[in-house]
Specification:
- 2 copies of one chain form a homodimer.
- By secondary structure, chain A is an alpha/beta fold.
- Chain A has a single domain, classed as Carbon-nitrogen hydrolase (Nitrilase/N-carbamoyl-D-aminoacid amidohydrolase), CATH 3.60.110.
- Chain A has 6 helices and 15 strands.
- Chain A has a 6-stranded mixed beta sheet with strand order 5-4-3-2-1-15. A 6-stranded mixed beta sheet of chain A has the order 6-7-8-10-13-14, covered by helices on one side. In chain A, strands 9-12-11 form a 3-stranded antiparallel beta sheet.
- In chain A, helix 1 packs parallel to helix 2 and helix 4 packs parallel to helix 5.
- The first copy, chain A, is globular.
- The interface between A and B is large, with 56 and 56 residues.
């Protein structure tokens, strides 16, 4: 980390079309634009190269997967190097025949891959058929060591798990990044939409508070239908950055493509942890049940 | 549990004077009143028999501690039996000479002690000198089995720890009860008060979301000074009950004595967990670092 305690984090909230090369080109343009606006670290949404294909189960979709390194890390690595920034790029990773992951590559200011995280918690709900596509990660929870300090890399469904946040915090992360693809089922939105959206924000703000660090969640926007007759998913945007007390310091709209940016100050983390010293008092002698499925 | 899936939970938010017998009498009256209003389970604030004595360190205060069973469990057990309700009573517990705990007794509808929890996480901050008074709990995290199902018993500082919430949830709790004594340092209130208060609510609402259960936090009210010249602590009341999506369904004022009440429906927990099945996907193979002090 530089002697400065601050860095500027940008989240690139975009819509994702069926043109995967076009989406990658767009990601390159928007990350370049964020760099031009002064960002030091830039994070893209989950699986930004594609419409959210997990709405259905289709084995031909595995054709879309790529290796790491591969095209995405090459193109965005070049952007990172050109602008001297760090880019967090979500990748549908082909690891081997029949073995795919939902992964996040951290590209440093030299364009190199500084870290790979593989999504640890895999959802499977109507319209979110991720267990069909993604093998659960086997690299554990990570904070990637970069010029800008340690960056916590997590993905979407991980955001509901306090364990994921805590273990990443214990690795020294100053920010938890959550590339995300989450939205409303249109038929549920009127009745449950507000509570779902607020729960999503609240649990992540809670991670910021409990760990006294920053949280940065970046989502896509747009209504994506798998067929003209399907209800589809209305991705709710609302990308945000929360500070170490859970206060939202930057927030995007629910429906527009945009870049949001905020300054992260590790001195603020230090100050918060001195005044609310949660790490001092953890009962590590009494947490062994955390690795049990149920407590009875 | 009865065949009904619902119960009414009441939180008794009161001010606490220097008259410990008077405070106990008041607690008996108010819990009786809550029972009269239809409550099935009633929780009092942390250490309600005393002003918050942890503002300073004074060995003579240990005179105030009592055994379990003792006067508090006797008086409130009689109220519980009379009204056929469950009462959660915070107690400054004398366990042995030189060994004191910050404890929570669950009194069932027969007036018996159904469970004892000893505060696991002990704070120590300016004005909250709890490490001087309380030995950390050695009974682990618990859900007390009652006629109204399993009730999670936690205390104040525990509320900042996702581990405490999770381990209690894994024991089968439908509600996490947090008797609390928290407030503003008057000299900090203007600058930090709103963020502190919101962080306190947010982290607990986050526990409700992450574990898909109810959270019930009950605080005291009033400005308590240890001397005429001391700034004191302004206890912020704001007792609340949150539902399994973190929505606040009952909330008290910041400064008035009052009873708040809400209906807890275990069918709602079941429904929430079916639709957001976080427990299904926990990576219990990858959480072993939770019992480490730091991850590096």
């Amino acid at each position: 980390m530089s002697t400065s305690t601050t860095m500027r984090v940008a989240l690139v909230q975009i819509a994702c079309s069926k043109d995967s090369d076009g989406n990658l080109q767009k990601a390159a343009e928007w990350t370049g634009r964020a760099a031009g606006q002064g960002a030091d670290v830039i994070c893209l949404p989950e699986l930004f190269r594609f419409p959210y294909f997990c709405q259905t189960e289709d084995a031909s979709v595995f054709d879309l997967a790529e290796t790491i390194p591969g095209q995405t890390t090459e193109i965005l690595g070049a952007v990172a190097k050109k602008h001297g920034v760090i880019i967090l790029a979500s990748i549908f990773e082909r690891r081997a025949s029949g073995l795919y992951h939902n992964s996040l590559a951290t590209l440093d200011e030299s364009g190199n891959i500084a870290g790979i995280y593989r999504k640890m918690h895999i959802p499977d709900d109507p319209g979110y058929c991720e267990k069909f596509y993604f093998t659960p990660g086997d690299l554990g929870f990570q904070a990637v060591d970069t010029r800008m300090g340690k960056l916590g890399t997590l993905i979407c469904w991980d955001q509901w798990y306090p364990e994921a946040a805590r273990l990443t915090a214990l690795k020294g992360a100053s920010v938890l990044f959550y590339p995300t693809a989450i939205g409303w089922h249109p038929e549920e939105k009127d009745e449950h939409g507000a509570a779902q959206h607020d729960a999503w924000k609240t649990v992540q703000r809670g991670h910021a508070v409990a760990n006294a660090l920053y949280v940065a969640a970046v989502n896509r926007v747009g209504l994506e239908k798998t067929s003209p007759d399907s209800p589809g998913i209305e991705f709710w945007g609302s990308s945000f950055i929360a500070d170490p007390q859970g206060v939202i310091i930057a927030e995007a709209s629910i429906d527009r493509e945009e870049i949001i940016m905020a300054e992260i100050d590790t001195a603020r983390i230090e100050d918060t942890r001195r005044n609310w010293p949660f790490f001092r008092d953890r009962r590590i002698d009494a947490y062994t049940g955390m690795d049990q499925r149920w407590g009875q």
